[in-house]
């Protein structure tokens, strides 16, 4: 009886290619899931902050009989955060809130840096509130958060107004 020498088996090229394809598909799924998770966390900032703005505006209205701000929007921070700049400081010694801004008088502050640029406007009956305000016969306010996470100049926008209790959202994952 003759003995055959043992064969050394390895992976074939096809098996290795299948493994590479599987790893590629899993990495694409992981990156997509991670991006959705980070966008959701950033979007939570806007919704929480705009909720605080709504509460502060209602308290201001109870105290002064009008909402804080003017019909022309007050924007802060001056530039919109994006993928290149990252988060921007809300109120820092290098870039403090202007004392004549509605944001300063409303007293709403971010606890740190922000992913969004915020706008605020308010008015009295008869003043034009733009597209956000449908009933110009009452005192009104609106506040918006704008973000551009991926730098493609498509903005995510979150909005609260004195007219409705929910947050209006456009392009939530941009």
TL;DR of this structure?
It is built from 2 helices and 7 strands, in the order αββαβββββ. The chain has 174 residues and is an alpha+beta fold.
DSSP strand count: 7
Strand line-up across the major sheet: 1-4-5-6-7
Task: Tell me the β content.
Answer: 15-25%
Question: Which bin fits the share of residues in helices?
Answer: 25-40%
Order of helices and strands: HEEHEEEEE
How many domains is the backbone divided into?
1
Mean pLDDT, all residues: 88
The radius of gyration is 26 Å
Name the shape in a single word: elongated
User: Gap between N and C termini, in Å?
Assistant: 73 Å
Main sheet overview: 5 strands, antiparallel
Low-confidence stretches: none
Count of helical regions: 2
């Amino acid at each position: 009886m003759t003995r055959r020498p043992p064969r050394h088996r390895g992976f074939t090229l096809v098996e290795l290619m299948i493994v590479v394809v599987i790893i590629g598909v899993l990495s694409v799924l992981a990156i997509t899931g991670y991006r959705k998770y980070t966008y959701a966390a950033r979007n939570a900032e806007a919704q929480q902050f705009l909720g605080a703005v709504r509460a502060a505006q209602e308290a201001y209205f109870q105290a002064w009989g009008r909402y804080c701000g003017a019909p022309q929007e007050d924007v802060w921070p001056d530039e919109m955060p994006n993928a290149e700049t990252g988060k921007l400081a809300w109120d820092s010694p290098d870039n403090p809130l202007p004392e004549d801004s509605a944001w300063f008088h409303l007293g709403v502050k971010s606890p740190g840096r922000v992913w969004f640029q915020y706008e605020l406007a308010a008015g009295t009956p008869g003043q034009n509130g733009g597209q956000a305000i449908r009933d110009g016969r009452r005192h009104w306010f609106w506040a918006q958060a704008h973000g551009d996470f991926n730098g493609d100049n498509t903005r995510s926008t979150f909005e609260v107004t004195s007219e409705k209790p929910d947050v209006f959202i456009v392009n939530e994952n941009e």
